[in-house]
Design a protein that fits this description.
117 residues; mainly alpha; 0% strand; flat
Amino acid sequence: MSLLSGDPTLHPYLALILFGFLPSEVWRALAVVVARRIDEESEVFLFVRSVATVLLVGVVVKIVLAPSKELALAPVWARAAAFAVGGAAFFAARRSVFAAVLAGEATIILAVWFWTR
C-alpha cells in the first residue's frame, strides 16, 4: 500500500507538506547553522537587519495608505492610529518589531470594533 493510495482528500495536505513546508524548512535549518557564526554587531548583520526593518515599514505604510479588501473598510484614522501606536510600541519596547506589530494589530482591531458598534 503506497502513501498516495489512501484517502484522496489528503493529497493537497501531502503536497503542501512536500512542496511548501519541507523546502523552506531546509533553508531555515541552514540559516540557524550559519547564523551561529555571525557576530550580531557586524556591519553585514546590521545592514541586513536595517533592510528587513525598512521593508517591513514599507509594507505597513502601503497597507495603511492603500489597503485592499476588508482592511479598506476600516477608516483611515483607525489605520493611522494603529501605525502610530505600533511605532510608539517599537521604541517603547526597545526596538521590538514583534511588540510594534502586536500593538498595531490590537489598535486597529479595537478601533474598528468600537467604530462599528
